[in-house]
């Protein structure tokens, strides 16, 4: 995938901190076997392992460049006195092409990352030639039931606008719409809700970034079957637990590929 071009459809999996090093190796090895040449897919497939496994994951993915390696976060500076932080420059150097930013698990305590902090990281990722995958989403489900999608739009709009204002020109950006209340649940948010929110967010983006390469994915307890209900309004899925089983991940990728 050229760094300036996003596939129309994307399916990615965030391993979060669920996997140890040997299980990360086994998982990625199994994925490479599924999608290695001569198999060809047009869907962009990406995997976000933990930092310590990125270099070895990059080696494992060497022969399957259609699978995109990404990181789960980064610092906003390329180098300096930032003990324990991870440089976006180094992520690029070890083979990352995507960096996830502003995940709900980073926006909440104890990290409390703000839109401003996330915007500086977006700039750093773009500066280093990688693609930011920015997670957005409203916190509360109960209020949604009384207020419709208006609350979701009000919470997500500044999250999106701060990113769009941080970058100049037609750079690729991926947004993952993840209602916070749907992360780590048994079922994803309803298709009606997701499609309504994402349509409004697309309208918002198009007023500001007409030419930008922007994709909007859904995340939050997505699993096999979820795509069928969302495919008319979304550009793909951002998966967690239910794709930590290789067979489930393959099923989701095939569902997206065949739609
Ligand atoms: O990063 C992925 C999302 O937070 C979704 O995770 P989940 O599918 O385990 O809810």
From TrEMBL:
Q: Name one GO cellular component term.
A: cytosol
**Which reaction does this enzyme catalyse, per its entry?**
D-glyceraldehyde 3-phosphate = dihydroxyacetone phosphate
Supply the alphabetized keyword list. Gluconeogenesis, Glycolysis, Isomerase
- Note the Pfam families from the entry: TIM (PF00121)
EC number(s) stated in the UniProt entry for this protein: 5.3.1.1
User: GO terms for biological process?
Assistant: gluconeogenesis; glyceraldehyde-3-phosphate biosynthetic process; glycerol catabolic process; glycolytic process
Q: Which domain of life is it from?
A: Eukaryota
Family listed: Belongs to the triosephosphate isomerase family.
- The name of this protein is Triosephosphate isomerase
């Amino acid at each position: 995938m050229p760094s300036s071009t996003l596939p129309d459809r994307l399916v990615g999996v965030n391993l979060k901190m669920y996997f140890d090093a040997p299980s990360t190796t086994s998982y990625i090895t199994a994925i490479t076997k599924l999608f290695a040449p001569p198999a060809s897919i047009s869907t962009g497939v990406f995997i976000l392992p933990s930092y310590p496994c990125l270099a070895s994951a990059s080696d494992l993915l060497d022969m399957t460049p259609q699978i995109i390696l990404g990181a789960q976060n980064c610092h906003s500076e390329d180098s300096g006195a930032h003990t324990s932080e991870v440089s976006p420059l180094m992520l690029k150097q070890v083979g990352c092409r995507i960096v996830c930013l502003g995940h709900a698990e980073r926006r909440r305590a104890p990290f409390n990352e703000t839109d401003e902090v996330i915007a500086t990281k977006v700039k750093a990722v773009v500066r280093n030639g990688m693609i930011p995958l920015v997670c957005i989403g409203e916190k509360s489900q109960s209020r949604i039931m009384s207020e419709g999608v208006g609350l979701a739009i009000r919470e997500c709009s500044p999250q999106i606008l701060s990113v769009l204002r941080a970058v100049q020109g037609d750079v690729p950006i991926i947004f993952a719409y993840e209602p916070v209340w749907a992360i780590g649940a048994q079922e994803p948010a309803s298709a009606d809700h997701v499609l309504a929110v994402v349509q409004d967010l697309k309208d918002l983006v198009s007023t500001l970034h007409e030419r930008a390469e922007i994709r909007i994915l859904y995340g939050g307890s997505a699993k096999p079957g979820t795509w069928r209900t969302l495919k008319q309004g979304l550009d793909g899925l951002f998966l967690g637990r239910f794709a930590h089983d290789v067979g489930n991940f393959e099923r989701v990728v095939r569902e997206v590929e065949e739609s």
